Amino acid sequence: MSVEQLDILSTAAAWAQAGEQVALATVTETWGSSPRPPGSQLAVTVSGKMAGSVSGGCIEGAVAEAAMATIASGVPQLLDFGITDERAWEVGLACGGKLKVFVERLA
């Protein structure tokens, strides 16, 4: 586990201890060109705080929305993002490729 991942987990734990509702998103798989490697994480709180990154910005908004839904429901999600290189810029995945992101609520 990288120092960056430990910092994100520490931040998420501190937010949870302070009473925030927190979800953690983790890149589980990538194919082709991907903005962040597997293991990259993003912590999101219901109040809108974020730490880390799963995409370098290109799909962070969609992952944050899914994190909010997971916080509300408690149901984890496996998100699948991918696009052809031809449409990559149009939808915000400038790098093309594919990635899967697992989103879970922290207790």
Describe it for me?
The protein starts with a helix and ends with a strand. With 107 residues, the protein is of the alpha+beta class. The mean pLDDT is 86. It is built from three helices and five strands; from the N terminus they run αβββαβαβ. A five-stranded antiparallel sheet has the order 3-2-1-5-4, with helices on both faces. The chain has one domain (3-105). Helices cover 31% and strands 30% of the residues.
Structural class, from secondary structure content? alpha+beta
Radius of gyration: 14 Å
**Measured distance between first and last alpha carbons:** 21 Å
What's the average pLDDT?
86
Categorize the overall geometry.
globular
Number of domains: 1
Uncertain runs are none
- Quaternary form: single chain
Per DSSP, what share of the residues sits in E-state strands of 2 or more residues?
25-35%
